[in-house]
C-alpha cells in the first residue's frame, strides 16, 4: 500500500515552517498516543505521525523528500547518497535510468555510490554514541467547569526513565566489562569492496555486531541490564491556572524521560479537557446563564441572587422587564490567563408561565389587569381595523 504524503499526515502545507510542523506534530502525537487513545487505529496513526515528523523536522531529509518522495528518504536511511567530487548518488535520480535504479540498489546495498574505486559512505544512521534526546510524555486530565473557573492543582504519578543510578547511564559498571568490537576495530563501521558497472566501489555500513557503537559490553549493568536507563515513579505537581481553556496544553520542559548518553530530557505535555456545565456556558472569557423566573416577577422587578462556584452574586431586575432581557455583571466571568482581568457574567432572564392556576388566583389576576389599566390589545384591534 502506498504511503501517505508526509505533509498530509501532519496536516500542513509544503511551505510550512519548522515551527508550524512541530506544532502540528505535538497536537497529533498527543491525540494518537497509545497511552491516551485506546482505539485500535491509534497506534498505527501515531507511528505515521512520528515517521512524518522525523523526516520533515530534519532539514536534509525534508529536502530529499521534497525532491524524490518516500523512495529518496528510504534510500537515504539505508545509506544512499554521498558526495564525491561534487556529484552525489542522489543526483543520479534526476535522470531516467529505467531499470538501472534497481541495479544500483543491488550493487550498492542501498548505500555507496559509483566511483571507480573511490570510497563512499553507505549508511546514514545516527551515531549510537552521540547524545540522544529523551522521549516526551503525553498526558490528559479531565477537570470540571468549576475547576477551570477557579483553578485546580493535583499530583500526577508517572513512570519516568531516568539515567541509571548504578552505571550512570553507561550500560556497564566497570571498564573491564567493555571491549573494542573486533568486527569494526572500534570504528562502528564496516567497509567492503564491491564490483559495479563503474568499477570497484567501497561501501561503508554500520557494524551489525556492535550496532555502530564500536564497543561490545561483556557484562551489562546489573541494575539497568545495559539499557542505560531505569524506570522510577515520579510525582509531578501540576497547577492548572484559573481560566484555562478546553484542550489547552501545559508543558513541563525537560521533565520527561532522560536522554541516552547524557542527552537532554524530553518534555511532559498535559492536555486539559474541561467538562461542560449543566447551566453555565462559556464564550471566550465571558460566562452565560439562563435565569428562569415567573412573569409577574419580571413586572415587579427587585433584588435577586445567583450562586457562582462558591460565592453568591446579587443583582437587580428593573421593574417591567421583558423576557430575554440580559443583565451584565462585570468581572465575574473567566479569568484571562496571565492577566489580572476577567470576562463578564451575562444573565438572560426567561419568563415562565404557571402550569395551572386556581380560581382565586385567576380572580386576583383579573383584578390586577384592571388595576394596571392596560388597553394595548384594544388599541391594537382598532389600529388593525383601520389599516
Task: Tell me about this structure.
Helices cover 26% and strands 28% of the residues. It has helices at residues 6-10, 18-32, 42-56, 59-78, 100-108, 145-150, 295-300, 359-372, 376-386, and strands at residues 83-84, 87-88, 119-121, 137-143, 152-163, 178-180, 189-196, 199-206, 215-217, 229-240, 248-252, 268-274, 281-283, 286-294, 302-308, 311-317, 326-329, 345-352. A 4-stranded mixed sheet has the order 13-14-18-17. A 3-stranded mixed sheet has the order 3-8-7, covered by helices on one side. Strands 4-12-11 form a 3-stranded mixed sheet. The longest helix is centred in the first third of the chain and has 20 residues, at 59-78. Mean pLDDT is 83; it is low at 79-124.
Topology:
Blueprint: H1 6-10, H2 18-32, H3 42-56, H4 59-78, E1 83-84, E2 87-88, H5 100-108, E3 119-121, E4 137-143, H6 145-150, E5 152-163, E6 178-180, E7 189-196, E8 199-206, E9 215-217, E10 229-240, E11 248-252, E12 268-274, E13 281-283, E14 286-294, H7 295-300, E15 302-308, E16 311-317, E17 326-329, E18 345-352, H8 359-372, H9 376-386
Parallel strand pairs: 3-8, 4-12, 14-18
Antiparallel strand pairs: 1-2, 5-10, 6-9, 7-8, 11-12, 13-14, 15-16, 17-18
Helix pairs in contact: 2-3
Amino acid at each position: 500500500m502506498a504511503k501517505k504524503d508526509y505533509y498530509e499526515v501532519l496536516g500542513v502545507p509544503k511551505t510550512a515552517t519548522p515551527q508550524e510542523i512541530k506544532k502540528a506534530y505535538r497536537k497529533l502525537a498527543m491525540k494518537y498516543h497509545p497511552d491516551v487513545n485506546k482505539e485500535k487505529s491509534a497506534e498505527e496513526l501515531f507511528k505515521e505521525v512520528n515517521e512524518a515528523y522525523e523526516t520533515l523536522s530534519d532539514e536534509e531529509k525534508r529536502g530529499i523528500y521534497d525532491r524524490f518522495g518516500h523512495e529518496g528518504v528510504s534510500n537515504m536511511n539505508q545509506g544512499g547518497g554521498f558526495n564525491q567530487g561534487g556529484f552525489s548518488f542522489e543526483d543520479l535520480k534526476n535522470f531516467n535510468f529505467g531499470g538501472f535504479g534497481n541495479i544500483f540498489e543491488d550493487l550498492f546495498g542501498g548505500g555507496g555510490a559509483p566511483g571507480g574505486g573511490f570510497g563512499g559512505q553507505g549508511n546514514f544512521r545516527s551515531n549510537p554514541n552521540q547524545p540522544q534526546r529523551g522521549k516526551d510524555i503525553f498526558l490528559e486530565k479531565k477537570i470540571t467547569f468549576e475547576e477551570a473557573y477557579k483553578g485546580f492543582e493535583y499530583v500526577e504519578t508517572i513512570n519516568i526513565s531516568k539515567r541509571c543510578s548504578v552505571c550512570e547511564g553507561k550500560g556497564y559498571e566497570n571498564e573491564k566489562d567493555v571491549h573494542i568490537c573486533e568486527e569494526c576495530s572500534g570504528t562502528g563501521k564496516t567497509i567492503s569492496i564491491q564490483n559495479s558497472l563503474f568499477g570497484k566501489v567501497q561501501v561503508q555500513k554500520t557494524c551489525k555486531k556492535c550496532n555502530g557503537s564500536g564497543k561490545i559490553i561483556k557484562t551489562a549493568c546489573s541494575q539497568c541490564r545495559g539499557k542505560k536507563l531505569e524506570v522510577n515513579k515520579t510525582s509531578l505537581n501540576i497547577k492548572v491556572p484559573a481560566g484555562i481553556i478546553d484542550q489547552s496544553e501545559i508543558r513541563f520542559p525537560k521533565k520527561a524521560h532522560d536522554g541516552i548518553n547524557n542527552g537532554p530530557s524530553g518534555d511532559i505535555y498535559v492536555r486539559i479537557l474541561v467538562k461542560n456545565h449543566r447551566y453555565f456556558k462559556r464564550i471566550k472569557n465571558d460566562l452565560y446563564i439562563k435565569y428562569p423566573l415567573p412573569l409577574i416577577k419580571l413586572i415587579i422587578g427587585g433584588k435577586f441572587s445567583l450562586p457562582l462556584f462558591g460565592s453568591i452574586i446579587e443583582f437587580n431586575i428593573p421593574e417591567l422587564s421583558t423576557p430575554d432581557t440580559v443583565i451584565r455583571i462585570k468581572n465575574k466571568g473567566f479569568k484571562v490567563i496571565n492577566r489580572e482581568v476577567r470576562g463578564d457574567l451575562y444573565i438572560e432572564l426567561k419568563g415562565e408561565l404557571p402550569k395551572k392556576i386556581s380560581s382565586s388566583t385567576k380572580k386576583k389576576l383579573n383584578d390586577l389587569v384592571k388595576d394596571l389599566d392596560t388597553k394595548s390589545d384594544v388599541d391594537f384591534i382598532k389600529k388593525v381595523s383601520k389599516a
